[in-house]
TrEMBL record:
Protein name in the entry: Haloacid dehalogenase-like hydrolase domain-containing protein
Cellular component GO terms, alphabetical: chloroplast
Species whose genome carries this gene: Ficus carica
InterPro entries assigned to the protein according to its UniProt record, in alphabetical order: HAD-like_sf, HAD-SF_hydro_IA, HAD_sf
Pfam families: Hydrolase
Domain of life (superkingdom): Eukaryota
Residues annotated as transmembrane: none
Amino acid sequence: MPLHLSKAILFLHSKPKPPILMANLSSKSNLTALTPPPKARLRGVVFDMDGTLTVPAIDFPAMYRAVLGDDEYVRIKAESPSGIDILHQIENWSPDKQRKAYETISDFERQGLDRLQIMPGAAELCSFLDSKSIRRGLITRNVSAAVDLFHERFGITFSPALSREFRPCKPDPAPLLHICAAWDVQPNEVMMVGDSLKDDVSCGKRAGAYACLLDEEGRYDSPKYANVDHKPDFKVSSLTEVHTVLETCFHLAP
Ligand SMILES: [Mg+2]
């Protein structure tokens, strides 16, 4: 299991900032791990899209404020330390109010598509996964048209690629379990990679998979995230560091 690897191994591979192994770096495990246990086998990686495979281009706080109104936004934000689930917030609204909310969300998403850029390191990471015959999937709360545009524009295809037309959306584990079933692999042979603690890490951990949080700016270092229900197994600041996690912590041979 990767959780028993010593901190030293990860730091030896560090490029300027090493990925952080989030769990099980207790002194007890370090003292007793004289012979490293076998690495877990990894057979698939599932990615979030916005902010993970693509450079963040959607102003989510502005979107939430526009949908909820200032007062509701402030109130719900205070109650939701790991982030706002906007699709959940609007699911019981009246049809008319919900339609307007989706129009607002779509406007923000369209503006994001205009600025779509692939995340540095994404193409290289996908090539590496291909070289190891490790499957690549995608789960996004964005619409299928955005996934289609991503596939067309960057020429990298993920399969299955589940958008918000697949319900329930993450953070529910259903989309990840669906992908595991389609691949005929166990969830503990898969890693979910994403930039959202509340959506990607929760989805991954609830499904029984490994979870890797992409935190480019270190925003999840804040104490307000210390007591969230689901914590990532790994925390990285770039997709290049995901590559390091894969090589260091998992058995990758087909
Ligand atoms: Mg994201």
